[in-house]
């Protein structure tokens, strides 16, 4: 304790943490990932435009969307195990190279005036699978490049990055597609190359290696000898068990899975509405860009919510708001109205995403970040693949109006479930039990700037 002028004592204080830009590795990770996300968004949207505008088949568009999102179901769990085993920086580099090569094959095929739905679906699957690995590795790496006390700020900044990239990437993809079908894909190749160059300079600490005991030997895993890894099925089960034992956490994830399925249906339905109205493909990009602006602001809001509002309250407010907004898509089909609706829904979605990611990263042990993150993504994003596939066939069978009405009804049900679940007796206690443990000092890296070097620690008087 520090002595005060009146003979009393003052409480201990910590140094005020510098801005995130003070961390060199965080800057490189943020920039490289921004380029990677930009490339993925640009080509991902072009897949849908390519199929809808060149074949006119809603079911084929749904099939390609399903292929792009299927890795969220098939790859998430083994990817989580492997990300915890492998060097995370190396995983990100391989993923960037793999996606760059896959997307380049589409650009070359279209430049030669060749279009095959199976080829587009295959590339969409490969890009989606490698994106799963990349996202898990990147999220786990964040914890190693910023102090634990700045995780919420870092997650909010990353989410804002993704939303801002959407704001640029979606309209750019539509505009480039309007010039020539191959241009969005070649642009993605260039951005993947820039991302690779940036991430090569990253020097993030490799914390996936097993810790050594006092004798310098690696600790034994369950059911294995020293230095041996457990079977992948056991590692996957460990991640599933960790999530399943937290009733509050898993309930929130299941409800979010349902809402993500609805939003996937909404995105494809709006693209069909725009095409059927005779408007240019770039209109879809502009509507999505409006949503990205809302998402960018929502990411900022989410950083505040994660510190001030319990997750149970965030879930209730978000789903009730979505249930009130979504019926507007049934009535209003003008691009300006649809853009406004996407702005609102994306603003809410980004806030919930930041709050949820911050919560998950804080409460998860570092050596399980990949596995737990994969379970989270499996539940939250895996449903999106089924939404894309089912929506394509439903649109062919019933039309956009009926699909949008059905989506609105399902969202109202989810809002009612969230309200009942998170206002029940004991919900507040569950929220308190999920408070993050105090950050370990060994996980708080030194801050290196051009003027001075600060060690993040308590200062005793």
UniProtKB/TrEMBL annotation:
Keywords: Cell membrane, Membrane, Transmembrane, Transmembrane helix
Membrane-traversing stretches: 28-53, 60-79, 91-110, 181-202, 252-274, 280-304, 316-334, 340-360, 372-395, 401-422
Topology within the bilayer: Multi-pass membrane protein
Gene Ontology CC: plasma membrane
Main subcellular location of this protein, as a coarse class: membrane
Region (Disordered): 208-230
CDD domains in UniProt: MFS_MefA_like
Gene Ontology molecular function, alphabetical: transmembrane transporter activity
Matches recorded under Gene3D superfamilies: MFS general substrate transporter like domains
Basic residues: bias regions: 211-223
Superkingdom, natural source: Bacteria
Cellular location(s): Cell membrane
Name of the protein described by the UniProt record: MFS transporter
Organism: Streptomyces spectabilis
Lineage, highest ranks first: Bacteria, Bacillati, Actinomycetota, Actinomycetes, Kitasatosporales
